[in-house]
Amino acid sequence: MEIGIIILPEYSWKKASAIWQQIEEIGFDYGWSYDHLAWRTLCDSTWFGTFPVLSAAACATTRLRIGTLVSTPNFRHPIQLARDAMALDDISDGRFILGLGAGGPGLDERLTGISPLPPRQRSDRFSEFVEILDQLLKFPRANYDGKYYRAVDTVMAPGCVQQPRIPFAVAATGPRGISVAARHSTIWVTNGSQKHFGTQCQEDALALAGKQLNLLRNQCEVIGRAPTSVISMANGSVMGDNPARSADSMVRFAAECAGLGFNAITFHYPRASGIFAGDTKLFARAAAKALPHIRDMSS
Fold this sequence. Notes:
Number of strands: 10
CATH architecture: Alpha-Beta Barrel
Helix content: 40-55%
Strand order of the largest sheet: 1-2-3-4-7-8-9-10
Mean pLDDT: 96
Radius of gyration: 18 Å
Strand content: 15-25%
CATH class: Alpha Beta
Order of helices and strands: EHEHEHEHHEEEHEHEHHEH
Shape: globular
Structural class: alpha/beta
CATH superfamily: Luciferase-like domain
Distance between the termini: 8 Å
Number of helices: 10
Largest sheet: 8 strands, parallel, barrel
Number of domains: 1
């Protein structure tokens, strides 16, 4: 089983560089960062641009797969996002993963003055968003004519280091989003219940995640794709009872996820206070102890 860590883009680079290097040294497979203009209770706090932070992280590491978790159409245009992703794929020498999500109503929309879309239109827009990104990153020249997005004879040079394109990590919890993941993703990510983000008990969250995973597998079979070709990742920080608090709880959470069929998990790097708060030194020791046991697990 693979394991990732989410580092919010809130640290000055002098501090952040040590964190990114530390998680690579501990042995994490993935290093993720949120791609928002601001986020929830941290809207008045320090918050840096995600792509510059990930570019620096790529230069500070050598093995770690890095990515957004997630970029959304709430403020990202797919052509510019594709160019930024292509650049990061080059900077990281093929270690970049483009995490994508539909984007819910919230600060990103409010800060840019965009009128929130109803759920069905939000899903329609997300489907187009992923489709046009797939075209832009897969082919040297792209044309796309949709309801929400257009690309007119758009040249994408030099193309991606990773072929046929950069991998997508699609975060989705509902049927339509999971269908998009089945068609386009290398990794599918679930937070359990999006409505009860971070407040659902671990038993209920895992039961829901198991149902979502079964839906993903069914969608893959419908389109003729092998379900095992999609890495399934559970976000333990928002669908568990703080499973990152100790090595034993990390291992137990991973074992429960593996029993459901998941083959990857991720946690948040502990913050000093507030949401995702924890002791960074204790976390580092616990993760170093837990990772060898988690890596040996199979779904």
